[in-house]
Amino acid sequence: xxxxxxxxxxxxxxxxxxxxxxxxxxxxxxxxxxxxxxxxxxxxxxxxxxxxxxxxxxxxxxxxxxxxxxxxxxxxxxxxxxxxxxxxxxxxxxxxxxxxxxxxxxxxxxxxxxxxxxxxxxxxxxxxxxxxxxxxxxxxxxxxxxxxxxxxxxxxxxxxxxxxxxxxxxxxxxxxxx
Length: 178
Hints:
Layout: H1 7-30, H2 35-45, H3 56-59, H4 63-75, E1 79-83, E2 92-96, H5 100-119, H6 124-144, H7 166-177
Helix pairs in contact: 1-5, 2-4, 2-5, 6-7
C-alpha cells in the first residue's frame, strides 16, 4: 500500500527515522565504537553468535568484513575468539571479555538515553502509541526480510518480551516455513 497522497507525513516519518539513527550513531560513537562494532558486541552479549559467521547477516558484512571487525574487537580487548559451541574445530565463536561485558551494558544504557532524549517531549500515551505503530511496522518488515535479526541488532532483549517481539515471531515463522 502506498501513501503517496500524504507526502508530508512520509517526509516527517523519514526525518524522524534519520534523527533516531543519528542519535544512536552518536551515542555509540561517544562510547568509542561505530555502529558495526556496537552491534557485534550487543549480538554477542545477547548470545546470538554461536560462530563468527553469525555476524554476517545482521551486520550486512562480507566474510572478510566480519573477520576484520572481529580482529578490531579482539585487538581492543572487548572480545576473544573461542571454540564454537557445535564442537566443529573449524568454526570459531566470539565471547566478550571482562572489558567487553560492561562495554555492552554501557552501549545499552547509551542507546536507551538517546532514544529517551529524542522522545522526551512526548506524553507517555504518545510513546505507547508510537510503540504500537513500531510493532506493526516491524512485523511487516520482518515478515519479508531474509535476515530479520538485522532489525534487532541494537535491541535490549531484557526490555523486550521475545514471545511478543514482531521480529522474533517473523523469524520463527520463517524457520517453520523452511
